[in-house]
C-alpha cells in the first residue's frame, strides 16, 4: 500500500500517486517560522486589493477563471496523479470553480455595497444609518484532500472577492494542485494576495495563529481542535466538517432513478465526498427492486485511476483501513456484501464498490463516516422509522429523499436535521451556490456559498451613523438641564411603546 506524502517541516517532501505508488511530484514544506512573515506580506498587499473595489477585483477573478479553463488538461492530469482519482471525478472540479467565480463576479458589487438601514423610530430619522462590509485582512483556509481544486477555491473565491488576502493551507496529502493554482493566480496578473503554507498540523496551527478568520474544511475531530486554537486569539471560524448523509427512498419513488442516484452519490470520488450517500433507508415495498437495481448498476462500474474508469483509488492505505474495518465489522455482525466486500491485493489504495444489506445502527458502517465506496441499505417499515433513523446521527450535513410525490418528499425533508436536502436527486445542492451549504450538529458551524452571504462572511460589519440634518443632535448631552433629559427619555419610551402596546392587545 502507498502513502501519499512524507510530510516533514521544514524540508522538501515527495508526493506519491495513490493508484500506482509512483512519484507524483515534490513539494517544499513551509518552515514554521516563515508563516508569520507570509501572513505579514499578505496583510500589506491586502490594503491595495481592498482599495481596488469590487469592480477592480472582479476583473482579476475573471482572468483567473479564464486561466483555469485554459489549463484544464494540466490541472486534471495533476489531480489524477496526486489523488488517484478517475478522470470523470477529476473533471468536475474546474467547472465548479468557474461556476463559483462567474456568479461572484456578477454579483459582488451589489453583495458588498453598504446597506442602508431604516431608523428604528421616527425621531431617529434625522440619522442616516449604513452598514459597511470591510474585509478581514487575512483569511486562513485550511483544506482537506478530497477535491484539491474545489476545497481551496470554494472558499478562497468569496474571500478574495470580499477584498481579503488568503493564506491557503492545503492538505499535506495534496499540496501539488495548490502550487499549480497559485501559479495560475500569478499568471492571471493577480497581486500577491494569495499565498500557500504547505505542511500538516503544525503549519495549520501557525496559520490559525496569524490569520483574522479561519475557514476550515475537514474532519469533525480536527474541526474541534481548530476552534480551540482559534479561541486563543478570538479568531472567528467557519467549519465545514464530516457527515453521514442518509438517503430515504419512499415506496412511490422511481426505483430505477433512486438506485442510480444512490450508486452515483455513494461511489462518486470513490466515496470520498463529504456529502456522499453513506446510508440508505428504503420503505419495504420498494426494497427488493431498489436493491436489485443498485447491484446491477454497481456491477457495471469500472475501478481504476484516470481515463476509462468510474471510480479511482482511496487517498491512502489509512483511508482503505477505515472502509475495510466498517465492512468487516458489519459482515461479522450479520450483514451481507452483495458486491465487493474484500480489500484487494495488488498495488494502489483501492477498495471495490461494496453494497451491504442486513445492516442496522449497531454497525459502524451505518453510524460512522466511512468516506469510502460503500453503500449500506436498510429496509424500514414506515416513513417515521426512516426519519428517526436518518436523524439518529451526530452528523447533519445533507440528505436525499426520493418519492413520486414531491410535496410528500418535501414534508419528509423538513423533518430531517441537516443543512440541505435534495429531492429526487443527489449532491445537486453543491451546484446551487446561491444557497448556503453548511452542516448542523457535528457537521459544522457556519456555511459557505449562499449568494451575498458567501462574501459577507469574510467581512466585519462597520456601522456608520451620519446626520441627515444638524437638528436634534446633542439633545441628550449633559449640557442640557436634568429636566430636559428626563423629558427626552419619557418621549422616547412613550413613542417606542406604542407598537408593543398595540401588539400586546
Ligand atoms: P482532516 O481533518 O484530517 O484534515 C483537514 C486539514 O486539517 C488538513 O489540511 C490537515 O493538515 C489539517 N490539520 C490536521 N490536524 C490539524 C490540527 N490539529 N489543527 C489544525 N489543522 C489540522 O481531514 P481530511 O482527512 O483531510 O478530510 C476528510 C474530512 O473532511 C472528512 O471528514 C470529510 O467529510 C471532510 N470534508 C468536509 C467537507 C464539507 O464541506 N463539509 C468537504 C470536504 C471534506
Q: Any key phrases for this structure?
A:
binds nicotinamide-adenine-dinucleotide, seven-stranded mixed sheet, single chain, alpha/beta, 17 helices, Aldehyde_DH_dom, 20% strand, globular, six-stranded mixed sheet, 505 residues, 43% helix
Task: Describe what you observe in this structure.
By secondary structure, the protein is of the alpha/beta class. The protein has helices at 34-51, 53-70, 72-83, 87-90, 93-112, 148-162, 175-187, 201-210, 220-231, 255-267, 284-299, 317-332, 364-367, 383-391, 406-413, 453-456, 482-504, and strands at residues 11-16, 23-29, 115-117, 127-135, 138-142, 165-169, 194-196, 213-217, 237-240, 245-249, 277-283, 336-337, 354-357, 374-380, 395-396, 398-402, 420-423, 436-437, 440-441, 444-445, 448-449, 459-467. Helix content is 43%, strand content 20%. Strand 1 (11-16) and strand 2 form a beta hairpin. The radius of gyration is 26 Å and the shape is globular. The termini are far apart. It holds the Pfam family Aldedh. Keywords: Oxidoreductase. It comes from Mycolicibacterium aubagnense.
Amino acid at each position: 500500500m502507498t502513502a501519499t506524502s512524507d510530510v516533514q517541516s521544514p524540508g522538501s517532501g515527495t508526493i506519491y500517486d495513490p493508484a500506482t505508488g509512483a512519484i507524483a511530484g515534490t513539494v517544499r514544506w513551509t518552515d514554521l517560522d516563515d508563516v508569520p512573515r507570509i501572513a505579514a506580506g499578505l496583510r500589506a498587499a491586502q490594503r491595495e486589493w481592498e482599495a481596488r473595489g469590487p469592480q477592480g477585483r472582479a476583473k482579476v477573478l475573471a482572468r483567473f477563471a479564464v486561466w483555469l479553463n485554459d489549463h484544464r488538461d494540466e490541472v486534471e492530469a495533476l489531480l489524477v496523479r496526486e489523488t488517484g482519482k478517475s478522470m470523470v471525478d477529476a473533471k468536475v472540479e474546474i467547472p465548479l470553480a468557474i461556476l463559483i467565480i462567474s456568479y461572484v463576479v456578477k454579483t459582488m458589487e451589489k453583495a458588498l455595497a453598504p446597506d442602508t438601514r431604516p431608523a428604528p423610530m421616527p425621531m431617529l430619522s434625522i440619522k442616516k444609518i449604513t452598514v459597511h462590509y470591510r474585509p478581514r485582512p487575512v483569511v486562513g483556509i485550511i483544506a482537506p484532500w478530497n477535491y484539491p481544486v474545489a476545497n481551496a477555491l470554494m472558499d478562497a473565491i468569496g474571500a478574495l472577492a470580499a477584498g481579503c488576502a488568503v493564506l491557503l493551507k492545503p492538505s499535506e496529502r495534496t499540496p501539488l494542485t495548490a502550487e499549480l493554482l497559485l501559479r495560475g493566480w500569478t499568471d492571471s496578473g493577480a497581486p500577491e494576495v494569495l499565498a500557500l503554507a504547505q505542511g500538516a498540523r503544525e503549519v495549520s496551527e501557525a496559520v490559525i495563529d496569524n490569520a483574522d478568520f479561519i475557514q476550515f474544511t475537514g474532519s469533525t475531530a480536527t474541526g474541534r481542535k481548530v476552534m480551540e486554537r482559534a479561541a486563543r486569539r478570538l479568531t472567528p471560524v467557519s467549519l465545514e466538517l464530516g457527515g453521514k448523509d442518509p438517503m430515504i427512498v419512499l415506496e412511490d419513488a422511481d426505483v430505477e432513478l433512486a438506485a442510480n442516484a444512490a450508486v452515483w452519490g455513494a461511489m462518486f470520488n470513490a466515496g470520498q465526498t463529504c456529502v456522499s450517500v453513506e446510508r440508505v433507508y428504503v420503505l419495504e415495498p420498494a426494497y427488493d427492486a431498489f436493491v436489485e437495481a443498485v447491484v446491477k448498476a454497481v456491477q457495471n462500474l469500472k475501478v481504476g485511476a484516470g481515463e476509462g474508469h468510474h471510480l479511482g483509488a482511496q487517498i491512502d492505505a489509512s483511508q482503505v483501513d477505515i472502509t475495510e474495518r466498517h465492512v468487516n465489522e458489519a459482515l461479522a455482525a450479520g450483514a451481507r456484501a452483495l458486491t465487493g466486500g474484500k480489500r484487494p491485493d495488488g498495488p494502489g489504495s483501492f477498495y471495490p464498490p461494496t453494497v451491504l444489506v442486513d445492516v442496522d445502527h449497531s454497525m459502524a458502517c451505518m453510524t460512522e463516516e466511512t468516506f469510502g465506496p460503500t453503500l449500506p441499505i436498510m429496509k424500514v417499515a414506515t416513513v417515521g422509522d426512516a426519519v428517526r433513523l436518518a436523524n439518529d446521527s451526530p452528523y447533519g450535513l445533507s440528505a436525499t429523499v426520493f418519492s413520486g410525490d414531491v410535496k410528500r418528499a418535501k414534508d419528509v425533508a423538513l423533518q430531517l436535521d441537516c443543512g440541505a436536502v435534495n429531492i429526487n436527486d443527489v449532491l445537486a445542492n453543491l451546484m446551487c451556490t446561491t444557497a448556503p451549504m453548511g452542516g448542523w450538529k457535528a457537521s459544522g458551524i457556519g456555511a459557505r456559498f449562499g449568494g451575498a452571504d458567501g462574501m459577507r462572511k469574510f467581512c466585519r460589519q462597520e456601522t456608520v451613523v451620519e446626520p441627515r440634518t444638524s437638528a436634534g443632535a446633542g439633545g441628550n448631552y449633559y449640557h442640557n438641564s436634568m429636566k430636559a433629559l428626563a423629558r427626552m427619555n419619557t418621549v422616547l419610551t412613550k413613542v417606542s411603546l406604542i407598537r408593543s402596546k398595540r401588539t400586546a392587545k
